[in-house]
Amino acid sequence: MRAAIIGAGPSGFYTTGMLLNAGFAVDLFDVLPTPYGLVRAGVAPDHPKIKLVTRVFDKTAKHADFRFFGGVELGRDITREELLGRYHAVVYAMGTSDDNRLGIPGEELAGSHAATQFVAWYNGHPHHTDHEYDLSVQRAVVVGNGNVAIDVARMLVLTDDELRATDTADHAIEVLEASALEEVVLLGRRGPVQAAFTNPELRELGELTRADVIVDPADLELDAASQAMLAQADVTVTRNVDILRGYAAREPRGHPQRVALRFLRSPVALLGDGRVEAVRVAVNRIEASADGRLQAIPTGEEEELACGLVIRSIGYRGVEIPGVPFDPRRGLIRNLGGRVVGESGAELAGEYAVGWIKRGPSGVIGTNKKDAADTVARVLEDRDAGGLGAPELEPSEEWVLARAPDAVSWSGWANIDAHETGSGAAQGRPRVKLVRTAELHDVARRH
Ligand code: NAP
After folding, report:
1. pTM for this structure?
2. What separation in angstroms does the CA of 103 have from each of 134, 145, 284?
3. Please, what are the domains in the chain?
4. How much is the average pLDDT of 371-393?
5. Is 8 left (phi over 0), alpha (psi -120 to 50) or beta?
6. Which run of H or E residues covers position 383?
7. Given CA atoms 443, 444, 445, 447 in this order, what sign does their dihedral have?
């Protein structure tokens, strides 16, 4: 049995490992010449421990029935039909690389950026190397109350020494070091009880070397619905509120920068002549909707916040692949528990989804292990029931190389890895990332 996995991030790698264990030969494809998805291009560079999960993936890659084809794009180099003609199972694991939009006037002004792109830029994702960020401004507003918003805020205020100890892309270090930012404001449309932060990330904001964390005690005066929610909330939420109360009670330490958390505030327009100069913010209150969800409802009061940079961190969205059923409302591949389904709800034999493109952009890296186990269980059920068909063609290396002559093998990636870690060692950094596609291919081939 042969499986093709599309996307070499955590969900793709976990799926690969489990299918190899179940006796499949697995080809893992990625659009980039490099593996690991968001572990390489999403996890904040100052969180190197989180990246150690790649050791598990490297072990998987040692399996005799594993092949990696980096720099091969589904829809451009190879088609869905070609895959279905060669593999018993095709598993889509490409994550959600696009961003949600606010849908407000001024969103497209210069100085307004998606966090997805900013994160990819500072992490050296080769498709995002040429973005430009003007940090010669005094205040940045980060919209959203998730961990990505915290990552972005923290990256904006790391010290030069902190940055230079990481694998942040060199082009980003240069820009971040020259920053004139004095304040980063995080805007949450709902209250502290509804924030999506996890405890360690929120706590880290209180330990920044050169930025004070500022919380207005008034923002922690909870409405009745939020109090009721807090009374029944899990430990993450109760600890978040405790951490925020600690911040609200704290005297600023006199650091030159500030990270301010503001709650119950939604941007309703970005203002400026050609580029962002301010954000108009609606003040919200919390109200329970018919289904019990606590929603942000505008009170009618509005404020204006001067700022020169806006980073919208309000969640990721999947990108449609030609021919693969897609739910445009949710921005995901249509699937039932991992089995891809058409618009009628009928299952498509041999096609599966896993990870963020299956369930949406939520959870931590480890969440994808359980998610992969669920999808792999469906593959094995279908195999055992004789539902995987009999592809007529062999997925030969010649076929891949005819479609993508520069495809990078696992040993090609090992060359890139050695090159990057070698350059990093000389500077006391984990690696110096290569950020141009051509350069990555060149190094993959050269050694
Ligand atoms: P997230 O956790 O889903 O947070 C998205 C935030 O955007 C929420 O606060 C949401 O508020 C807000 N939002 C959505 N639409 C909005 C709108 N129109 N206006 C204003 N705010 C809006 O997503 P994320 O931060 O992108 O993170 C994705 C996943 O990766 C999460 O599971 C996260 O924990 C994980 N992650 C983990 C780490 C880590 O472990 N260190 C680091 C980064 C990311 P509502 O709640 O009101 O919808």
Report:
1. 0.97
2. 23, 18, 17
3. 2-97+316-408 (3.40.50.720), 101-312 (3.50.50.60)
4. 96
5. alpha
6. helix 367-384
7. positive
Contact yes or no for 91/382 (Cβ under 8 A): no
What letter would DSSP give residue 264?
Answer: S
> Which atom of ligand 1 is the closest one to the Cα of 47?
41
DSSP state of 127: G
What local confidence, expressed as pLDDT, does residue 90 receive? 98
Say if ligand 1 is within 6 A of residue 102 CB: yes
Rounded to 10 deg, the angle between the 10-21 and 367-384 helix axes is 40
Q: Residues 355-379: what's their mean pLDDT?
A: 97
Best CA proximity match to 28, nearest among 55, 75, 76, 60: 60
Rounded to whole angstroms, the Cα distance separating 303 from 188 reads 14
User: What number does the ligand 1 atom closest to the CA of 103 have?
Assistant: 18
Q: From CA 110, how far away is CA 277, in angstroms rounded? A: 10
Kindly report the average pLDDT of the chain as a whole number. 97
CB of 166 closer than 6 angstroms to any ligand 1 atom:
no
Q: Is 171's pLDDT higher than 90?
A: yes
- In the reported structure, the alpha carbon of residue 313 is separated from the centroid of ligand 1 by a whole-number distance in angstroms of 7
The token duo for 328 is 């445009």
Rounded to whole angstroms, how far apart are CA atoms 27 and 93? 13
> What pLDDT, in 10s, does the model give residues 129-158?
999 999 999 999 999 999 999 999 999 999
Mean pLDDT value across residues 88-113: 97
Q: CB of 149 closer than 6 A to ligand 1?
A: yes
pLDDT band for 447, please (50, 70, 90 cuts): low
